[in-house]
Structure formats: C-alpha cells, structure tokens
Hints:
The protein has 412 residues and is of the alpha/beta class. The protein folds into two domains: 72-317, Aspartate Aminotransferase, domain 2 (3-Layer(aba) Sandwich), CATH 3.40.640.10; 319-364 and 372-379, no CATH class. 36% of the residues lie in helices and 16% in strands. It has helices at residues 9-12, 17-24, 60-63, 72-82, 97-108, 119-138, 159-163, 168-171, 189-195, 221-232, 284-287, 303-317, 320-337, 365-374, 397-411, and strands at 39-43, 46-49, 54-57, 112-116, 146-150, 181-184, 200-205, 235-239, 263-266, 278-282, 344-349, 354-358, 377-378, 380-382, 386-389. A hairpin with a 2-residue loop joins β1 (39-43) and β2 (46-49). The longest helix has 20 residues, at 119-138. The protein is globular. The mean pLDDT is 96. Pyridoxal-5'-phosphate (PLP) binds at residues 62, 118-120, 123, 154-156, 206, 210-211, 239, 241-242, 267. Its cofactor is pyridoxal 5'-phosphate. One of its GO terms (molecular function) is ornithine aminotransferase activity. This is ornithine aminotransferase. Its EC number is 2.6.1.13.
Amino acid sequence: MTDTVTPSPAAFGTRSSKQLIRAEAPVLAHNYHPLPVVVARAEGTWVEDVEGRRYLDMLAGYSALNFGHRHPALIEAAHRQLDELTLTSRAFHHDRLAGFAERLTALTGLDMVLPMNTGAEAVESAVKVARKWAYEVKGVAPDRATIVVADGNFHGRTTTIVSFSTDGTARAGFGPFTPGFRIVPYNDLAALESAVDETTAAVLIEPVQGEAGVVIPDDGYLTGVRELTRRTGCLFIADEIQSGLGRTGRTLAVDHEGVVPDMLLLGKALGGGIVPVSAVVARREVLSVLGPGEHGSTFGGNPLAAVIGSAVLDLLATGEFQRRAAELGEVLDRGLAALVGAGVTGYRARGLWAGVDIDPAIGTGREISERLLAEGVLVKDTHGSTVRLAPPLTITEEELGSALTALAKVLA
Ligand SMILES: Cc1ncc(COP(=O)(O)O)c(C=O)c1O
C-alpha cells in the first residue's frame, strides 16, 4: 500500500485528456496503443471527448457499433430489461432466451444456438463443438481431429486461438500452443483441398478477413469452401464476428455467395454496442453433440444480452441497415478509388468496410490515424500501413463525404 490520497469520484470527472492518459500508464496493462483521445460520451455516429471536442466515428468499435452509439431502440430495450431481470445463469430458464434463439435461427437459416459473450468465446466454443462432432459423428480417432484455418486469420486472443494465428506479435511468449490446426493460404482452394483429410473436423475461415486489412477473397471462394467441405465430410465454420450483421451490405458476408455454413459465429454488433453478446449458430446435427455439463458460460444468453441481441436482430430484420451499407458502400468505394495514386496505394472495400493502404512516402497507418484524429475523424491502423474504415451503418452520406474529404486532406 502506498500513502497516496485517493481522489474523490468528482476529481476523476474533472481531469483533462492529457491528465487521464498520463494516469492510465502506471495502472493499466499496456496491451493496447490507443490514439490520444479520451472519449466521454457518444450518440449515433459522433463521439465527444472530455474537453467537449466532437469526432466522427469511422471505426465503430471494430464493428461492435454497427447501429451507432446508443441506438434509441437498443437503449430502450436495455432500460426496460434492467428494470425486470438481468441475470439468472443457465441454472434456470428465463423468459427472454427462446425469443433470441428463434430470431437467430430465422435470420441465418440454421437450427440451433449456443449463446456466449465475446467473439473469442464463440470461436473457442466452435472449436470444441467441431472436435466433438468429429469424434462422435464423423468417427475420427480419439484426439486426432484437425481444423484447417487460413493464413492471416484473426479469431481472437485465447491460448487456443493464438495457437493457430500467423501473427508473431499475437503469439510470442504465449506457448506452448494447442495442437490440431493446419494453416493454409487464404483464398486458395487448392491449398485447402490438400490440407483436408479424414482427420479434418472443420474448415474455419473469415468470409472477409477484417483484422488482416479487410481482405476479400475472390468470387467463388466461399462457394468453393462450401462445396469442398460438403464433399469431404467436414464442417464449414464461418467466423462472421466482424463481417456479419449488415457490415458488408448483406446480413452476412456469406450471403454475397448465397452460402450457408454449418456453423456461423456472431459477436460484436450482436451486443448493440452495449454488452458483449456472441453466439454459435449451427445445424442441429452439429450443436446436438453438446450435452449438459459439457460446455457453458455463466453470462452466456443472460436476459439483458438476450433482449439487446433480439432488438439488434429486429433492427436487421427491417433490411434498412444492409441497404444503407450497400448504397453508402458505393460512395465509399468511389471516394477511395479517387485517392488511389494520391496517397493511397490500394484499397479493398465491401459495403461500409474498407482497408486502405497508405503510401509509405506519406506516412504510416498510425500517423494518418493521428492526423485524422486532429481533423475530428476516428479510424484505426492495422499492419503498419493500412487504415481501416468501418463507420456505423447509420452514417449519412454527408458525414461519409466529410470523412473522405478529411482523408484526402491528411494525405495531401
Ligand atoms: C473475425 C473475428 N473473430 C473473433 C474476434 C474476437 O472477438 P472478441 O474481441 O470479442 O473476443 C474478432 C475481433 O476482432 C474478429 O474480428
């Protein structure tokens, strides 16, 4: 114990951005490198820092805020549920879970739901389910099941998940790793085919690789993965934790090819930017391998999460957000195309989601993000030279235009 005086709660609320950033360093783990902005409140596409400066949010919590900050329908649903019931654990039934699961199955065309909390938990759960399915249904020899994943993947941060990451920073110092994974190049059906054998439980991929810099596979890749997994008798697991729920201009990124996976992983936006909500949605034959006591989570499917998740799915059922993402995605695409050769070396975009490669002569992704911050626009860099754009799907054409103008200005 040190002899310092603990500031009163009021004092916490009166500190400047600079003071708050300085105060974090000794008491917070340094596993992030945030941009120097201290957000205090937000609404829709806009956030405000502790000094009252406003910023256009072009990151949307890595797609956890697809419906913007504090969407009125989501906040209202949350408020109502806070007054009724927040947590039971799965030791008991509660009156909100069936409706949530029914909405998820209706939206996805799949049969059963395993509710979890974070994205990483959904991925972990899918790995366990796929292995159990391989032993009990496919007949793979005990402890021999393999899962094929793609180079450049990002599926989360747990020990098992970083075991099949190809990002050295995400792995260094965290071994020993979980065995049973094979890594193949993304967007390469021939490589996938040669990695699949009688031990393969599943192929796990992101239909668009978000953290890799919004890497979009060739048309036909997802159809090919579906066809290959069906033909060879293994599961297709689509991680749509970042790509799903309207982001790409369709409800799911796999919808662009009309493909239905065996297991679909959802998260981020499913929690409406309010609470962590994730889910494994799957065919009955697959999720039926789980019996009582074999897997679970204290908070997974809790009443508050179920109500917010249901409200999110009701918003998506209107089709408005998918339509906005598709239409404004064309505006984004045209705006970025105009910047190629003017500070941008290339970009990849689908719906309201883009990875923009910055000319190293102009600056790093981090430097461009800092310059945009000074212009009142929030973005985040990835892999050194790429800037990721993923605004709330509620953004207006005018707001999107002003973000593109700011990008052009900082690149000039
Ligand atoms: C595709 C994908 N899967 C899984 C995750 C992990 O989600 P969480 O951070 O909620 O654990 C992420 C997070 O960025 C992701 O993009």
